[in-house]
Amino acid sequence: MIRRIVICLTAACLAPTVMAIDTGKAFEDPAQQERYERIIAEVRCVTCQNQNIKDSNAFIAADLRREIRRLMMEGKSDTEIADFLVTRYGDFVLYRPRATGKTLILWIAPFLLLLVGGFAIVGVVRHRMALPLDEQ
Question: What band does 38 get if pLDDT is binned at 50, 70 and 90?
């Protein structure tokens, strides 16, 4: 009985390390490693969709991490890496999509909605102020 408990506890403690895909450093240079960590934190996993590839255990996320590592070793810039990912997977792959013609409405819509809401509030307040007061 105690043996089973020890085996179960050992398996439970080792499970997170077994599930981890990239446990080691990708680059020896700390600046390159920091750049790599920043890039993979900003790329969305196309399978998980609400998780970045840094934290994802999906196979496609591992492939994307390897691809980003390869592109960095080839000397590609962050913009070139982002262009490669967008060409392959679309704007959705980036957590912060670029301000292009397609995504411009996403960047402008919140400000337009606030502006329309502000005008609506001003109109309601002016209308209410124009109403006569009931003296009782």
Answer: very high
